[in-house]
Amino acid sequence: MKKIFNSILEFFIIILQGIMIGVMFVFCKIKFRVKLNKNGIELPKEPAIFLCNHQSNWDPIFFRVLMPRRVYFLAHDELFKNKFTAWCAKHLIDTVKRGASKNDIGAIRQLLELKKQCRNIGIFPEGGISFWCESSKVPENMAKLCKKLKMPIVLHQLNGASFYYPRYNDFKAKVRPIINRMRVITAEEVEAMSVEELTRIINECLYVNDFEMQKKRMVNLRRKHPAEKVERGLFCCPHCNEFGTLSTKDNVIKCSKCGFYNIVNRYELLESPNPNFAYYEDFIAWDRFQIDYLGEYLAKYKEMDKPILSTYSGICKYGNETDSYSHIEEQDACLEVFKSHLLLTIGLDVYNIPYSDVIYAYVEFRDTLEIKMANTKLRLRHEEGVVWSPYHFAKTINALKQIHNNANKIIGNDNANNKNND
After folding, report:
1. More confident: 3 or 296
2. Whole-prediction pTM value?
3. 280, 289 in Cβ contact below 8 A?
4. By percentage, how much of the chain surpasses pLDDT 90?
5. Is-contact 20 92, C-beta < 8 A?
6. What percent of the chain has pLDDT over 70?
7. Would residue 199 be called left, alpha or beta, if left means φ above 0 and alpha means ψ between -120 and 50 degrees?
């Protein structure tokens, strides 16, 4: 009886999948006019690993409706936080839970099981969506995983989708995402390549800077209020070099300290009516300046007892690295960033977090700061009416961790030299 029920359920899922894929295909074609360019490159006959840069939450759906094969993608563990979304993710979108922890080997086991079942595997190797529509660097661990799986690799490059609903703006734009098939690497080639060479090829094929492409195409994005909320990511004025003085309204970015202002045009590029304020053509160039300046500022910062940044208030989830955020209770909190450590206050509890425990910090869900640590993790968002930049915090924390890493290397080298002299 159970076998008959399972057969009926499987048949029902196949029918439902066909209907959903048909609906999603029509929707994606009408709404986004999404397109796949094969560039004369045919898919390998055997199951393969599909790698692509990550630009939006729609990316797995674009692949699902455009690829002639079923591709099983690794997905964030929170997509499986309740039974309904977990069932939809597994049976309708073909996703595999990637795990809540960097040490979670469950996802690797599932990938090996998919290979055993002769399934195609899809991975967005950046791990998350970039803030400024530019691809992040793919780490060597991805090449090591591909060599472990011993399958052909199909490299795709997605561009245009990041402009639809970027992390720096709450208003959607008119875009046409295009997926370009870049290269197929056979299983024999994967085995013969070094990890470094394979990593280089993956990065070259997946790298996208949508602002550079926009300068060539000059597509009218037709976004309402294109500048609003950009201060989520732009935290430093290029004219007076002050932090936290920028504000936005409609299509204007201005500094309350020096009067600097720029206009975001319909192509999402920067214009300056005042030639004295003409610094950068796009947000990525501006961001590179502020990251470099932030590093110099932090290196010279001497006030060890004064916080560099403080959230003053916020709502956090703080728990063990292996816990899913969906199972961690929200609490009121305050995070202070010092030159030597982080100070997290949750109610009456105070946590002193050295930078040696911090792995990295990043922005999730547009306005949420996440910090991965050796044994714990933190998710922090601001309360309504209290605004601070999670992007500024993430870049500051990562820069301070790098400063401490460099200092420890120097100390280690000095100790080694002293021992050799002795």
Report:
1. 296
2. 0.86
3. yes
4. 62
5. yes
6. 89
7. alpha
Ramachandran category for residue 241: left, alpha or beta (phi over 0 → left; psi -120 to 50 → alpha)? left
In this structure, are residues 391 and 235 in contact, taking their beta carbons and an 8 Å threshold? yes
Report the alpha-carbon distance of residue 395 to residue 311 in Å, rounded.
15
Structure tokens at 152: 């052909």
State how far the alpha carbon of 271 is from the alpha carbons of 162, 164, 235, 244, 274, in Å.
21, 21, 18, 21, 9
- Residue where the block lists tokens 């029509």: 26
Q: DSSP letter at 36?
A: E
pLDDT at 14: 75
Other Cβ atoms closer than 10 A to 282: 21
Q: Measured between alpha carbons, how far is 38 from 182 in angstroms, rounded to an integer?
A: 8
d(CA 320, CA 350): 16
Is pLDDT of 269 > 60? yes
The whole-number average pLDDT for the span 9-31 is: 82
Q: Indicate the residue type of 310.
A: S
Mean of all residue pLDDT scores within the chain: 88
**Rg of the chain on CA atoms, in Å:** 24
Looking at the DSSP bridge assignments, the partners of residue 153 are 49, 185
Q: Is the pLDDT of residue 82 over 70?
A: no
pLDDT in tens, 394-413: 999 999 999 999 887 766 55
Give yes or no for a contact between 199 and 251, defined as CB atoms under 8 angstroms apart: no
Indicate if the alpha-carbon torsion angle 317, 323, 326, 329 is positive or negative. Answer: negative
- pLDDT at position 422: 54
- The string of DSSP letters for 185-212 reads E-HHHHHHS-HHHHHHHHHHHH--BHHH
Residue 285 pLDDT level (bands cut at 50, 70, 90) = very high
Alpha helix ranges (H) inside 253-333: 283-300
Q: Residue 46: helix, strand or coil by DSSP?
A: coil
Helix count (H) and strand count (E) of the chain?
A: 10, 19
The torsion angles phi and psi of 321, rounded to 5 degrees, stand at: -60, -35
Distances (CA, A) of 171 to 4, 59, 227, 229: 49, 19, 10, 10
Identify the three-state secondary structure at position 322.
coil
